[in-house]
Amino acid sequence: MTHPRHALQRSSTMRALLFSSQHYDQESFTKAAGGTALELHFQPARLTLDTAALADGFEVVCAFINDELDAPVLQRLAAAGTRLIALRSAGYNHVDLAAAQRLGLAVVRVPAYSPHAVAEHAVALILALNRRLHRAYNRTREGDFTLHGLTGFDLHGKTVGVVGTGQIGVAFARIMAGFGCQLLAYDPYPNPELLALGARYLPLPELLREARIISLHCPLTEHTRHLINAQSLAQLQPGAMLINTGRGALVDTPALIDALKSGQLGYLGLDVYEEEAQLFFEDRSDLPLQDDVLARLLTFPNVIITAHQAFLTREALDAIAATTLDNINRWAAGNPQNLVMG
Ligand code: NAD
């Protein structure tokens, strides 16, 4: 299907501005863009209403997960000549799609880059929390070779609940099946690949009651916002482990703190945080942490937080760059792919 209104003169050089770009984005995009006519500009600033003017005259704005793409920002971009929003992410919960459509802005995304990257990071959090690697690492560096407080449990035979069984959920389930875990799953659309691994699909409350480890791999939507809250945490087995590499707002963070204080939640691994946009991807180590909820979370010995790094493998970065450039070129040729519709 062609979209002539998106077609551009192929002779003109197209300019794309990459907001929130880090040195690793520059490396992967420069490598992938070799030989194409696309002119890439790397901008470390996050896209907000205050920084949108940096994109004046850029037909393509390339954004990441913590860039703001609400109606006022989109309106500002469209007014200054932007025609395409090329997301470097799979998730698009941060885009006001209705506003984009109204303004004639096309939105494309990278639906899959490396489900393994995210799934393997979820497993890394499970192993580190269970075997207390974060504590052991610090202890041995201090010359303390004792083992008290480091007792873990065998993953073999334990029940693991997978919430959201798309590409990442399946990759995660395969790894956990390899450990000899029993798999439970919750997803409105059961996946035959999970069933082939011996997983049982259950309603969420039953999954929460039966699983020793729960890992979230569903998108953030109006149905999944605060899917894990005080009520659902009360359904867990005391001492259960929760892993969230999906989106921060899948969980009600203050409710997690209460569950950790009571011991109802035994372990917590987060790669995403509801209020991460102001913090993640920046070095704020010289500044007082203003977020009291995050500060409290960081005091628990049974909590590990990573700053949205689950996607960060070489393979994923290369795939994000290749698909994004392909998305831009296909859109420019009037034959768009990976469009996100409202
Ligand atoms: P996917 O679209 O392949 O799978 C998502 C699954 O969630 C689908 O099977 C869908 O049916 C299911 N789902 C939808 N609503 C649900 C609900 N209410 N309850 C349970 N399941 C529901 O997506 P994916 O590639 O597996 O990615 C999943 C999510 O992971 C993304 O939406 C994104 O938010 C997150 N993600 C995080 C990182 C990171 O670096 N931490 C990287 C990539 C993706």
TrEMBL record:
Gene3D superfamilies under this entry? NAD(P)-binding Rossmann-like Domain (3.40.50.720)
Protein EC: 1.1.1.28
Q: Per its UniProt record, what Pfam families does this chain match?
A: 2-Hacid_dh, 2-Hacid_dh_C
- What's its top-level EC category? oxidoreductase
* GO MF, one annotated term: D-lactate dehydrogenase (NAD+) activity
| Ranges where the D-isomer specific 2-hydroxyacid dehydrogenase NAD-binding domain occurs | 123-310
InterPro entries attached to this UniProt entry: D-isomer_2_OHA_DH_cat_dom, D-isomer_DH_CS, D-isomer_DH_CS1, D-isomer_DH_NAD-bd, D-LDH-like, NAD(P)-bd_dom_sf
**Domain of life (superkingdom):** Bacteria
Q: Which UniProt keywords apply?
A: NAD, Oxidoreductase
**CDD domains the UniProt entry points to:** LDH_like_2
Give start and end of each D-isomer specific 2-hydroxyacid dehydrogenase catalytic domain.
17-340
Report the family membership: Belongs to the D-isomer specific 2-hydroxyacid dehydrogenase family.
Protein name, per record: D-lactate dehydrogenase
